[in-house]
Design brief:
There is one protein chain. By secondary structure, the chain is mainly alpha-helical. Helices cover 49% and strands 2% of the residues. It has a two-stranded antiparallel ribbon.
């Protein structure tokens, strides 16, 4: 095949998205013609940096892909409709892969434009190497990205292996490995195409909403015996108020603390696990990260993410009920006293 590299220098590769055509007889004939060269496992050519780039297409794999029965080769590779194919300008494998990114937009324009706002595209724009369409979705082997759901984290883990390892040991990662469909994977927090820079304050503030998406779902939380008051109790306290002010544009002096500051990010564990950052035994140490010198009883007043009730913190609940009755009674009595005083003044005139 290398002897025919002039004929295949452009290559057919990747992209599957495009062409709104169903694979009719004409398209099937085109596919067979392309596979006469690209069905050869040794089909490849050399890039300018000396690396070998395969252009092999497995017919069986392609036919099982989401595009296999819907589009022809030139639906994704219109520039390769003539022989010899145009010369490949990419010098490296990364450039070769990135060169296909604009082909997907003809059918997947919305996701394409979202990806242009993502952190990966920003890296590419600066001349760096970062994944784009085919690096995550594949080329001729594209299937549903979340089937199975673990595929999402496996895909991201190909580049972010250190984070994937930590996530795999977290409460979410362990449940995901057991087939749990309720737990989030990478794209649920980071999004799929318009992935933002996770180090920015703006992104971190949005994490509260990301956590709330699952942790306020009564049906899901009921399965695991978790409180759905987690967000409301957080927003009611000083930490949550700080985040709310920041999100509304009224920048507080200090933004502290967000969900991830107490619970962790990719390493979140069950709250009752021995190494949990929010386990009562470890909580003082967690608080001390922002409150240096916090004493051992610093966390004694913390009620967790539960509203006080006769069963949880009954004394706090009783005090709350007392003030809800006492304060209106006190104000009402004061107003009544004033009215009676005014009435007396009017009568005595």
């Amino acid at each position: 095949m290398t002897g025919r590299k002039g004929l295949i220098s452009g290559v057919l590769f990747v992209f599957l998205f495009a062409a709104p055509l169903a694979a009719g007889p004409k398209e099937k004939e085109e596919i067979e013609n392309c596979l006469s060269c690209h069905g050869d496992k040794s089909a490849s050519f050399k890039l300018a940096d000396g690396s070998e780039q395969s252009v092999f297409v497995d017919k069986a794999v392609f036919e099982k892909s989401v595009h296999g029965t819907k589009i022809s080769c030139t639906g994704c590779h219109p520039a390769q409709s003539e022989l010899p194919h145009p010369e490949v300008k990419a010098k490296t494998k990364a450039e070769f892969s990135a060169s296909f990114k604009d082909l997907c937009k003809s059918c997947h324009f919305e996701n394409y434009t979202k990806a242009l706002d993502g952190v990966h595209y920003a890296v590419i724009q600066k001349g760096g190497a970062a994944p784009f369409c085919t690096d995550c979705h594949g080329a001729h082997d594209i299937t549903k990205p979340d089937a199975p759901k673990t595929r999402v984290s496996d895909t991201c883990g190909a580049c972010h292996s250190d984070i994937a390892e930590v996530f795999g040991k977290s409460v979410h990662g362990l449940a995901l490995a057991q087939g749990n469909q309720d737990v989030p994977v990478c794209v649920d927090c980071h999004k799929a195409h318009d992935i933002a820079d996770p180090t920015t304050t703006a992104w971190k503030l949005k994490l509260v909403d990301a956590c709330a998406k699952c942790h306020t779902n009564k049906a899901v939380m009921k399965k695991y015996g978790l409180s759905t008051d987690v967000v409301q109790t957080y927003l009611n306290d000083f930490h949550g108020m700080s985040a709310s002010l920041a999100s509304s544009g009224k920048t507080p002096r200090v933004i502290t603390a967000l969900c991830i500051d107490c619970h962790g990010t990719h390493n979140i564990t069950k709250a009752k696990d021995g190494n949990s950052q929010v386990l009562q035994a470890n909580l003082q140490k967690t608080c001390a990260k922002c409150h240096p010198g916090a004493p051992k009883n610093f966390t004694d007043s913390w009620l967790s993410h539960y509203q006080p009730s006769p069963k949880r913190a009954p004394l706090v609940w009783a005090v709350g009920v007392f003030y809800k009755v006492f304060i209106p009674f006190l104000i009402g009595g004061l107003v009544l006293q004033i009215l009676l005083h005014l009435w007396r003044v009017m009568v005595n005139r």
